[in-house]
Known about the structure:
It is found in: Cell membrane. The chain is an alpha+beta fold. Helix content is 50%, strand content 17%.
Amino acid sequence: MISMYITIALRHLAKRKLFSFINIAGLAIGMTFSLLIAVYIWEERQVNADLKNLPQQYYLQSAWKVDNMYMPLITPAPLAKALHDQYPSLIANYYRTFPCSANASYKDRHFRVGMQPGDTTVISAYGLTMLYGDPTNAFRDNNSIVITEETAMKFFGKPDALDEVLTIDTRKDGKKSYTVTGVLKNEVRENSVTTINGFKNDILLPIQSVDYFLGPDADKDWNNVCMASYVQLQPGVAPQQLQAAINNLISVNCNQQLKDNMSIQLIGLDTFYLDTNDGLVRKMIYILAIIAGFVLLMAVINYVNISVGTSMYRLKEIGLRKVFGGKRQQLITQFLAESIVLTGIAAFLSIALYELLRPIFGQIFNKSLPHVSSFSGMMVLFYLLLVAGVGLIAGIYPAFVLTASNLLKVLKGKIAIGRGELLFRKLSLVLQFSLAILVFVCTLFISRQINYFFKRELGYNKEQLVVISSVPRQWDSTGLKRLELIRDEISQNTGVASASISYEVPDGMNGGSMPLLPDGATDASPVNVERLVTDGNYANTFGLQLAAGRFFTDTDNPADVVLNEAAVKALRLKQGIGQEIIMPDSDVKLTVRGIVKDFHFTHIGKKIAPMIFINQEANPMYRFLSIRLKSSDIRKSLAGIESVWKARYPDSPFDYFFMDEKFQAMYFSETRLSKAADVATGLNFIIILLGAVGVIAFSLTRRAKEVGVRKVLGANTASIIYLFLKEYTIVIMLANLLAWPAAYIIANKWLDGYAYRTSMSITPFLIAGIITFGLTYLLIALQSLRTASANPTGLLRNE
């Protein structure tokens, strides 16, 4: 019986090739896009899935009462270890790390690498897979390191790098030699232990190495809020049970400022990746899932419209089968079988399209999507259920509508589409166009916001600004003087306008914050101001604009500082220039020498924070050497800079980035969403137009005699075409009226998430409406032109 249903289904598909092609193409497009989005969502949700004891693994995250105080991803350094040591009934294991980067060398190979000095529990606690070395004793001593397979190949040209020695340039004690005692297998999936805040770390070091980067006993200082902390709960322990223990440790050990402003939250590693950064990844998943659902829904609506619209071709078949004893349940099964067969063909086609488009979408999402052959059992099950679900949903309405027809009228083959079916088709078309216009308008607003980011005045000049990121970090007066000499030598290059040493560049990663008060305002609440440690050339190199006073110089008093306008306002300084500000509980007084106009240091979507520029001479911390080029021959200028760098730092890599590229990277999430929305908009219109081709083709065939009569009575081609255009004008107008308010609410809500945003304008709505009308009218006109131009005799003979 099943084979007979399938045979009839295949014959029907072969007989109506145009409609079969439209249905298969529409469903294939919808399922391909849905599969790509589903695989991406699956991969995003599998981050951390490979970690050992995942349900018990938690990240300790800080919540701060005062803005701009510390990052939420860091906690007091000893906290995780103290919880484990003092509350063993609650904590099974722990891990702390200070993720950073440093220059590493092996012979003539020099690279800037991400590193994680941290507790040696990392391998056992999370079940990281080692290719070489002993997982139970991965670190033999304090001079041991564990590296990734990729790092081993980069430095040593082989994965088995056991007992090889790497030289790492530390901040405090210069160059240190480390022996490789373990090699980790390259991760199949990302995790939030070796990849922190988006930065992948290639080298794991023992916790004692934190001293070389933060200072002696930094991991034991309760007021050092610089480390990422993880804990593994004992089986059966809930996160809420730790709150009292955490509060007790903080109240006993931390200073008053931390006690008053910091609270600690436990975030499960199973959801940490989705929920961090204000749930950015989770929001992206929801948006893409909704868009994919819209695309798939349009393909299903196409199938239903065409199936109902072409039902007249199958009326006699249905009637004869009823006469010969066919039950309605059998007829319903037949139509559902046809729908599932057609969906199955579309599914095979969608798999081929998936493999074809997988690399493109991987670039859009910045994520490697697996081959179909690598799908997990869950993904295979999901896809089979998707195909079966689409087939049943697409076929269920036509099946019940067509099999409910009156027997006598069916046998005569003269049933007309009733009001209910016509209304359903019209409403489904309105729904299709509404969804397409909704997505289109929202896409246009996303593009407008991204253009707003890139065209908005930043307050600094990011063009022709190259930043060397592999600066050796010898944080003392000797190291600073050496770097200043190189800065001055590079500045003499004919292609260089200026150069600056700093701890920060406008990439959103500042050097922390400091509480400040105007001198004499001891009763006021301190204002947390983001700290930027720079030399005297920073304003000139980055093109900052002075609102008053001047920027400090390298020879000025180290207590001279510069504020931005937001800091002057937050501190309520009257004149600003010449006023003194203090740090609470400190005798140090800082003198304001200049005020720079506000500039966007971080994502434009965030409000500009109060900032203070500290003279490098007072605090010799640095990470970057920024160089403004004045020559149009950038390659030649870079070659000159590199020659100076290699001469002065022969054992350091020459790693650099351009500031405009770093700026674009801050908006990767918005750019990714925009590209995905662009693709969805294009697919929506392809599916709609495919469906319109089928519906209009059926309508032209059904009304062929009417067109013939009109032509005999004197109607010209233009009036015939207008007849069909008028029928769809109301549909598109209704779709716009429904879509525009919804699009306005959604777009406005999304834009409200940005401190600086584009304005709501009627332009995107008009663009969407005009393009929708234009494409639909063009398609209808082209299709109806042939019928309108035909000989009326042939049209009147049409049956």
